[in-house]
Task: structure prediction
Amino acid sequence: MQQLTDILRNNPYPGRGIVVGHNRVYYFIMGRSANSRNRIFSLTDDGIRTEAFDPSKLEDPSLIIYHPVRRVDGALIVTNGDQTDTIRDRGWREGCMAREYEPDAPNFTPRISAYIRDDGTFEISILKHNSGTCQRNFFAYEGVEEGAGYFISTYQTDGNPLPTFAGEPIKVSMPEAADVWAALNAENKVSLYANVAGEVTLFNKNLGE
Result:
C-alpha cells in the first residue's frame, strides 16, 4: 500500500483525482490554464458544483463547469465531468457506457467516476482513449479496511500531451484532508472536496483555503 501524500507530493500534475476509502472520499481538481484555475467548489443541495471564481474571466465552460458530486438513491456519485448527471439519470453502468473520454485532443482526458454505496461497496471506472476508440474499464470493490482507499487520477503526470492514467486504481493510505491539500502541487492545485463520515469540507485555493 502506497502513501497517498507521497504520490501527490511527487507528482506536479495528476490532473483530477478521486480517492475512495472507508467512510472517506476525496476529489480534487488541478489546472494548468487560466480558465481551469479560475474555479472554486461550492456546495449544492445534493453535493457540490464547480463555479468560476471570477465570472468575467470564464472562457469555454463546457469541460470545467459541472457537478462533480451528487447523492442519489443511497449512493454518492463522484466524477470529473458532467457524466455525474448521466450516471444519476441512467444508473451506474448504463451511464458510464453512454459516455466516453473528453473531446480535448491531443490529451483526450479520460472520464473517471466512482459510485459509492451506503453499505461500503463501491465501483470506479475510467473511460479512456485507445487508438481512436473508447476503452471503458470498471473496478468493483466490496469495501476497504479503515485507513486505506483506492486512488485514480486523469493523468499519470505532467506532459504534452498529458499521459493518461494507466493500470488499476492504486491502493493507498488515507491521510487527513488537510494533508492531501498540502501535498498537492501548490502552483497547479485548485480545489479539494473531502467527505469524512458524511461531513463535507471544501478547500479552494482562490478563496485562500
Summary: The mean pLDDT is 96. The first strand starts at residue 17 and ends at 21.
